[in-house]
Amino acid sequence: MEGLDTTVADPHELARELRVQEFGRTRPTSIAEALVEPAWLGPRIVAAVADDRATFWWEGEAFDERPEVAAALARATGGSLHEGAVFEGYLTKARAPEGIGTEIGVSTVTPTNAITKMFIGGRRDRVAEFEARRAVERAALAFEPEDIVSIVVVDLLWLDGQWLLDVPLLERKRVLEGIVPAEQLVRPSPYVREPLGSWIGSWRAQGFQAMSFKAANSRYRPGETADDWTLADLPRR
Q1: What distance in Å separates the CA atoms of residue 115 and residue 136, rounded to the nearest whole number?
Q2: How confident is the model over 131-152, as pLDDT tens digits?
Q3: Domain 11-20+33-219 has CATH 3.40.50.10420
Q4: pLDDT, tens digit (0-9, with 9 covering 90-100), for 70-87
């Protein structure tokens, strides 16, 4: 936790100072006991909940464009917290699914559905595909008033006065699921273990283009690049 002031007790201030852990370039097959999730689109944020309110921070700047989502997160977790919590998550235009969690599937509509339709069943134009994907990723970072936005919570970093950065990821996930219920605008991210089997087809059908692999025993190092985290494209077939 080099560079972090561990004496700060205000979750909102902690979240402002934190930076997300970056994905490395490790081959997925090199990550032992990986937890696999669909790769969400949208701002990757640090969120804090305390004092009956939630704040979102994107690269150290307050992200207050969607107060209804912050209010939903505060309501959803308020009864489970004493001193508060700090999460990592994504603000996404994806429609959040019902009842997701470990070993449960996703029923999400994402902006990448357009790309899936463009390239499945026809000749593959890699340049056009790359440009289309980058355009979708850029569009996912900007919200219009009519967009339905939810927060998908993927990690738990601090809880009721205690840092969880050195707690193995799988344990952080299990605690997270206990304090973040699935609601209309708030969801914990689903995660599964290999073999992925039908999950690949399911995620592809829902429009996802990539997935993340994170070692079940991995720790969280804010602002650093993790050798045991990586992103990979979904197989086309």
Answers
A1: 8
A2: 666 777 778 888 898 999 999 9
A3: no
A4: 999 999 998 889 899 999
CA distance 72 to 68: 6
Q: What is the 3-state secondary structure (H, E, C) of the chain?
A: CCCCCCCCCCHHHHHHHCCCCEEEECCHHHCCCEEEEECCCCCEEEEEEECCEEEEEECCEECCCCHHHHHHHHHHHHCCCCCCEEEEEEEECCCCCCCCCCCCCCCCCCCCHHHHHHHCCCCCCHHHHHHHHHHHHHHCCCCCCCCCCEEEEEEEEEECCEECCCCCHHHHHHHHHHHCCCCCCEEECCCEECCCCHHHHHHHHCCCCEEEEEECCCCCCCCCEEEEEEEEECCCC
